[in-house]
Model the fold of this input.
Amino acid sequence: MLGNFSYSNPTKLYFGDDAISFLKDELKNYGSRVMLTYGGGSIKKNGIYDEVIKALKDAGKEVFEDPGVMSNPTVQKLYEGCRIAKDNDVDLILAVGGGSTIDYAKAVSVSAWCEEDPWDKYYLRMEDVDNRIIPVGSVLTMVGTGSEMNGGSVITNHEQKKKIGHVFGDNVMPKFSILNPKYTFTVLKYQMVAGIYDIFNHICEQYFSGEDDNTSDYLSEALMKSVIHASRIAVKNPEDYEARSNLMWAATWALNTLISKGKTTDWEVHMIGQAIGAYTDATHGMTLAAVSLPYYRHIMPYGLPKFARFAKEVWGIQTEGMGDEAAAEAGLAAMEAWMKEIGVVLSAKELGVTEDMLEGIADATFLLEGGYKTLSRNEVIDIVRASM
Ligand code: NZQ
Ligand code: ZN
Done:
């Protein structure tokens, strides 16, 4: 049975190989002072920076640049961005990049005018925003997180060894996002497959929970099938527009709040992945890939019918007469084969996890209750150890 919920999503999307042409008009909705936020320089090499600057100039904007957003953006960078935004009293933050840049832009948007320490307020205490919010728009260049159409904002504090996400509300979600699949052609293969696995796992986190008949689960199965199909084409030919556009669209729908409506969700793979990220600064999607198989094999007995359904509906396995347990195992084996085929990292060791980190990683892992099994601290250690 679907639970009660409200649903809205305020982000306006412009999708396609001409999407950037809408930026100039969209910019008219905001004041003249724009903070241009981007990462380590990929947008200067592939020409996206020039296209964005042209739109900003054509719209008559004064631009305040905020480059250097690193993957897994840090709290130090957040403080720096707040100073740029506040000192220049910007009217809009235009984030051009992947999830890191867009997440960071949302963090700056709620933090620049916040009188308390934003790390303490939003990430440690998980409080709501009660100060001025600077609007955010995005030009997406790397697919995976869904940040372009959600309120998620993940910040890393290396000193405290914590990587924490705050899911902000509609008023913080990007006002608009420009989605041109061609912009993703230059993403390195390692990042591309990490992003693909991130999409897939976002769907798993919302699928492996609940025992009822729920429309969300059918939507999830369709999205998973599309991701698997498109990923196989994209790893062979990264410039296949059809595959890259389907991945981009699936990523957005995998985490724009729709498929979680009316049901419980898990998110424990993300909690462990973020803890690994806090210790190693590893690529987000790879942290998820490394722990997924030990995690799902561990919780499988507690959600057998759904894992058997996953085998049949997502992987097309003829499960009739197999029994739930054998079917469930076959589904995870098919998932493992696909993960190997596209080339994700399956070992936490490869991401830099060492035995002496295990206790700390377990301490940094939030234990959530929405999935088929609530883990204990020791189970987290067992799962990470199994992935080494
Ligand atoms: O910094 P630049 O030079 O731009 O390079 C980036 C970066 O090195 C590069 N890149 C991006 N677009 C490119 C490109 N390289 C060539 N051509 C392009 N068109 O790709 C690298 C990775 O980018 P990044 O933004 O770090 O990756 P991703 O999109 O995976 O974002 C990861 C962050 O998002 C958080 C993660 O925890 C992590 O901090 N997440 C955010 C979520 C949300 N908002 O809901 C949910 C996710 O589960 C996730 O936790
Ligand atoms: Zn993710």
